[in-house]
Amino acid sequence: MPVPILLVTGFLGAGKTTLVNRILQRADGRRIAAVVNDFGAINIDAELIAGAEDGVVSLANGCICCTLEGDLLRTLSNLLRRTPRPEAIVIETSGVADPEDIIRNLMDPVIWRAAPLETVLCVVDAAAPEALLDDPLFLSQLRAADLLAVSKGDLVDKASLDERCRSLSQINRRATLVEATGGDIPLDLVFPEVGTARERTTRPKRPSIDRFETFNWTSGTPISLAGFQQVVGRLAPRLVRAKGFLDTIEKPDGRYLFQLAGGRATLAPLDRDEPARGTRIVFIAEIGRITQVDIDDAMIRASGHQGQ
């Protein structure tokens, strides 16, 4: 029996991991393997995925549409050799990935026969700036999709949400559009009846253009929450995305999950029982906008100790 693949794409901070988690939480015992690609040496998203019956495979420090494409095919081959085999595979791409290149790789005849690409789902942040609709990478993600899932609708008013949905439908008229605030989405749309997969025509591979870069900050000791919030305020205008885990002086027995996307920063206590393991944050910016020295200096001033 072929194992269907769900490819989840979407721009940086759109809410892909939240949606994948909701799918896995509602799998009702179905064996689903999750392959998570994070653009950075620390794969934060893989740690946030919970409930995959057939495990989570992490592909970090690169993008599966270019530098890690061989790793993706090897990963899928390994998953398909497991006993028992997964009943479905979810691939969560990094926010900088062009799905056209990933789809081309998934059309490999050997992979296609065993694990056909059933659905391409693009997660779209309803509150993202209007200028994003002109971004070439974002447009490629939209146009590749069979299903457009509009996230974070609770952050905008109804008129703005309706206007965003109209704009998305005009860009990709063939895709089904659903609101998916909180990651909620009908599973019959995500995993249609097996056998409905269609081979896809993709454009010729184009030379990759380096546009984004990542920086990491790690520390083995707690940091000041107030100091960190000041750092975020200073760095945010030069970042397109940041995320990670914090151990803080103010909360020595717990941890925080930090997220920055679309200029909005959130800091929330982790709702699972997990011991302190140090602060680990990934910062993503357009090339030339910020340096590792900038981040190190800011974080050292905020925390009062040297990063590791």
UniProtKB/TrEMBL annotation:
This is Cobalamin biosynthesis protein CobW. Gene3D superfamilies: CobW-like, C-terminal domain, P-loop containing nucleotide triphosphate hydrolases. Belongs to the SIMIBI class G3E GTPase family. ZNG1 subfamily. Zinc chaperone that directly transfers zinc cofactor to target proteins, thereby activating them. Zinc is transferred from the CXCC motif in the GTPase domain to the zinc binding site in target proteins in a process requiring GTP hydrolysis. It catalyses: GTP + H2O = GDP + phosphate + H(+). One of its GO terms (cellular component) is cytoplasm. The keyword Hydrolase applies. InterPro entries: CobW-likC_sf, CobW-like_C, CobW/HypB/UreG_nucleotide-bd, P-loop_NTPase, Zinc-reg_GTPase_activator. GO terms for molecular function: hydrolase activity; nucleotide binding. Pfam families: cobW, CobW_C. The keyword Membrane does not apply.
